Automatic annotation (TrEMBL), chain A:
It comes from the Bacteria. Keywords: ATP-binding, Nucleotide-binding, Transport. InterPro entries: AAA+_ATPase (IPR003593), ABC_transporter-like_ATP-bd (IPR003439), ABC_transporter-like_CS (IPR017871), P-loop_NTPase (IPR027417). The lineage of its organism: Bacteria, Bacillati, Actinomycetota, Actinomycetes, Mycobacteriales. The keyword ATP-binding applies. PANTHER family: INTERMEMBRANE PHOSPHOLIPID TRANSPORT SYSTEM ATP-BINDING PROTEIN MLAF, PROTEIN TRIGALACTOSYLDIACYLGLYCEROL 3, CHLOROPLASTIC. Residues 286-349 are annotated as: Disordered. Residues 5-241 form the ABC transporter domain. This is ABC transporter domain-containing protein. It comes from Fodinicola feengrottensis. It holds the Pfam family ABC_tran.
């Protein structure tokens, strides 16, 4: 039921160019985390470091007592079986049809009979809504379907950690909403630790339990969603609200002159928008990582922006609210760290 | 937004390795050579590792054979003919017509057939392997494979290398036969040589070790071509253009390596195996 991933002091550079340095964060077991960042801040590079496709210059990545950065090649292949990774374009094998693609890990790593493989593959294809497309080749289907097929393949070995690289790139908002809901449902069903890398603010606001922000070659902040969504820190605020006003510029960061000009123009950052409700599993179950809305704010004496934790206007009824209210009377599942330690704010820079 | 800032950041974002190589041409070149060598070693180490991918091996062997057999045969006929024409004239000038067949066999078996094999293996098989692996690389298929706990060297490269070696071996035999037949045809039919003299002198100069050395050469060429193509393919980068560049470089590098190795192996051969009658 999910394992913890502990990253300490991770630094990566290509040649003389530092991608990011001294990144430390802990992905809590069984929770959904999102890693945000402007384009070109090395989010995908971070993901590749996590699975050992790239070697960091310094730092450690600890999973179940193994430091991934120091493992031998052979051991690394063993540890990788804990992971399910969804690449940007699904990364399906172009020469195989969808069924063979999804069956591939089972056939390579297990001695399951072909009928058993079929049962598992059918089950996963059903889960991502691809039943009936088994014989299609990856070149014959749409990008959204490729992503879902990639997800099914990532899930077939029952991973403990699911890493997702930009689930929303190249998808329309409706499909993005569906795939986001799928992540929440999957997290509830299989209890794996999720890390989603994205720059889609809407995904970041509604899906995760924890949010991290990579900016200017370091991790600006990592913590529970309410901590970041109510944060006054200019970079976090600017990014999570997708504004032009703030320290992030078009190319990288704005220079001093530009910021000065902005301040002299008398521009105040707009007020924080209300914190939206988190997506809930569709079947009404409570996820292990889920916290009642507003709990972090309450525990840390932060007043959330007005209008927070309410259904957006126009959503008929308050079924969502009722379910959230239910989960407010929610008890801590066993094996979870104390809220206080989890809520420990890690603010840098 | 100022333009210089934009362009500065875009040059920074991608292809750091390319930059590195441009700034340090010598160490960059050495590093590539070292990486290629270690890639070859990795392949050799992975060779005996179970499970051997028999299916992939058969598919690849079939594929390589299908793209090389016809061009090889078509190249070796004029190759044998040219040698026959040259030797036919030369032997007449020297007054040694009876040795036309002997010299022709010697030239075809010892040199022409490994060279033709090398050209075809590098040009047809190597470019196909490099393009295949390169497109898998840029579609992140290789990353996905590694993440699924499968070593692409063992799963994809080893079967291709073994298939290339086998097909190299077989192609060499094909070139020898077709080349000698072509030589016979041109010498006897076109130049009016005597069939008996041509056939009788076959073993006058050539000996069995000539054939063995040619076959060993072909196997080595197959190995080198497949390793270079796989290495270049698996390190392709920068989108579809990167794959095109990789294929181009792989063919050029393979040609240079093969001709050099051919020279080295030939030099060793003459030290080890004494020429007939000397």
């Amino acid at each position: 039921m999910g394992v913890e991933v502990k990253v300490e002091g991770l630094t990566k550079s290509f040649g003389r160019q530092v991608i990011w340095s001294d990144v430390s964060l802990t992905l809590p077991a069984g929770e959904i985390s999102v890693l945000l960042g402007p384009s070109g801040t090395g989010k995908s590079v971070f993901l590749k470091n996590l699975i050992g496709l790239l070697k960091p210059d310094r730092g450690s990545i600890t999973i179940q007592g193994n430091d991934l950065t120091k493992l031998s090649e052979r051991k690394l292949y063993e540890v990788r079986k804990l992971f399910g990774v969804l690449f940007q374009d699904g990364a399906l094998f172009g020469s195989m049809n969808l069924y063979d693609n999804i069956a591939f890990p089972l056939r390579e790593h297990t001695r399951k009979s072909e009928s058993e493989v079929k049962r598992i593959v059918d089950d996963k294809m059903e889960m991502v809504g691809l039943a009936g497309t088994e014989r299609k080749l990856p070149g014959e289907i749409s990008g959204g379907m490729r992503k879902r097929a990639g997800l099914a393949r990532a899930l077939v070995l029952d991973p403990e950690i699911v890493l997702v690289d930009e689930p929303d790139s190249g998808l329309d908002p409706v499909r993005t909403a569906y795939i986001n809901q799928l992540f929440v449902d999957l997290n509830q069903q299989i209890g794996a630790t999720f890390l989603i890398v994205t720059h889609d603010v809407n995904t970041a606001r509604t899906v995760p339990d924890n949010i991290g922000l990579l900016y200017r070659r370091h991790l600006a902040m990592f913590g529970p969603r309410e901590m970041l969504l109510s944060s006054e820190e200019p970079v976090v605020r600017q990014f999570l609200n997708a504004q032009r006003q703030g320290p992030i510029g078009m190319s990288e960061e704005k220079d001093v002159g530009e910021l000065e000009a902005e301040r002299q123009a008398g521009y105040e950052m707009p007020p924080l928008p209300p914190i939206a409700l988190q997506l809930l599993p569709t079947d009404g179950q409570v996820r292990a990582g889920q916290r009642p809305p507003g709990a972090w704010c309450q525990a840390n004496g932060v007043t959330p922006p007005p209008g927070s934790f309410q259904d957006p206007p126009g959503v008929a009824g308050s079924a969502g609210n009722a379910r959230h209210a239910q989960s407010s009377g929610w008890t801590k599942p066993a094996g979870r760290a104390d809220d206080d330690t989890l809520a420990l704010p890690r603010v840098e820079g | 937004m100022s333009h210089p800032a934009w362009s500065a950041s875009t040059t920074h974002t991608r292809r750091p390795e390319r930059e590195l190589m441009a700034s340090e041409p010598i160490t960059g070149g050495l590093r590539t050579a070292g990486n290629l060598f270690s890639f070859g070693l990795d392949t050799v180490v992975s060779l005996p590792r179970r499970p051997f991918q028999i299916r992939e091996f058969i598919q690849q062997a079939w594929f390589i054979a299908s793209v090389t057999i016809l061009p090889t045969a078509l190249v070796s006929i004029p190759f044998g003919a040219v040698i026959a024409l040259q030797l036919g004239t030369l032997t007449r000038q020297l007054g040694a017509q009876s040795f036309t067949g002997a010299a022709s066999v010697l030239a075809v078996v010892r040199e022409a057939s490994p060279i033709v094999t090398a050209l075809l293996i590098a040009g047809a098989a190597g470019s196909a392997i490099c393009a295949d692996l390169g497109s898998r690389k840029i579609r992140e298929e290789l990353d996905a494979m590694q993440v699924l706990g499968i070593n692409p060297i063992q799963r994809l490269v080893v079967p291709r290398v073994v298939a290339c070696m086998l097909i190299g071996l077989l192609l060499n035999g094909l070139v020898s036969v077709v080349g000698v037949s072509g030589g016979y045809f041109f010498n006897v039919i076109i130049q009016g040589g005597t069939p008996g003299a041509y056939l009788a002198s076959f073993t006058a100069l050539a000996q069995l070790p000539d054939l063995w050395s040619a076959e060993i050469k072909a196997v080595i060429f197959g190995f080198i071509a497949a390793v270079v193509a796989s290495y270049k393919g698996m390190n392709a980068g920068g989108g579809p253009k990167g794959v095109g560049d990789a294929v181009n470089q792989s063919v050029v590098i393979t040609f240079m390596l093969l001709f050099f190795v051919n020279f080295v192996v030939t030099a060793i051969y003459f030290q080890v195996v004494p020429a007939k009658g000397s």
